[in-house]
Amino acid sequence: MTVFRPSIQSQKMIHRRRDNFFIFVLIIFGSIFVFLILISSTAFIPWFVVDKIEIQGNRIISGEILDKAVYRELNQRIFWFVPKRSIFLIGTHGMARNILKEFPKLSEVKIDRSGFKSLRVIVSERNFTGLWCLGDVVDCFLVDEEGIAYEKFPQGVSTADLLVLKNSNSPKILERFIELPVYVEVLRSVSFLAGISFNVAEFNFISSNEYIFILKDGGKIMLGDNFYFELINKLPLLLKEYDWKTGGDFEYVDLRFPNKAFVK
Fold this sequence. Notes:
Elements: H1 8-41, E1 52-56, H2 63-74, E2 77-78, E3 82-83, H3 92-102, E4 106-115, E5 118-125, E6 130-134, E7 139-143, E8 149-152, E9 164-166, H4 180-195, E10 200-207, E11 210-215, E12 220-223, H5 235-238, E13 252-255, E14 262-263
Parallel strand pairs: 1-5, 6-9, 9-10, 12-13
Antiparallel strand pairs: 2-3, 4-5, 6-7, 7-8, 10-11, 11-12, 13-14
């Protein structure tokens, strides 16, 4: 039986390749380590530290408050001891996400570099459109143009001149009152009704096929399906056969059926 035994030269070659591999691995990891040390050290060198923040787009939230929030993000630590304030360590997308979480009143935050040591923070604030309330207007939240709740409404403040929104759900921060396409139709209908002196005090979302506008004088306008929102625009024409007085001299108008208006 023939037994293969590697030659001394072959064994040396194997050891040499193994040693070369270990050296290569050490060089790679050493280079990465040195690179991380160099980048981390820039957080402590004034030449590379962000020293200017420019806030744009804010209307209600003060620039000083947003400025402090950005600096808090810059002082967050990497590896427990290296702050992110170096221009080489800033993660603008993560910073923007964190600021959005901290300020629900903001709908969008963009952060970019406006100079070697400067950051530009562009924010968009939500626009108030109504109050999403539970029960007898006790627990209410401000709602923006997309139907998203973003801030708790203070108790004890009058809601007489505000649009109150109700459904079967309890309002929560950053929850949506109703689907966006439907809410767009609601706001458009409220605006149209105000133009013909039907001032809406409350909108009730009962179900996907039942909506009720409650007017400030106590009258009601009932809709049955998303499609029938367009009947709001035809309301003056549909009421023409009735003794209609501007301001809504009726108990209710039922628009749950196409091209017909039942009035009481």
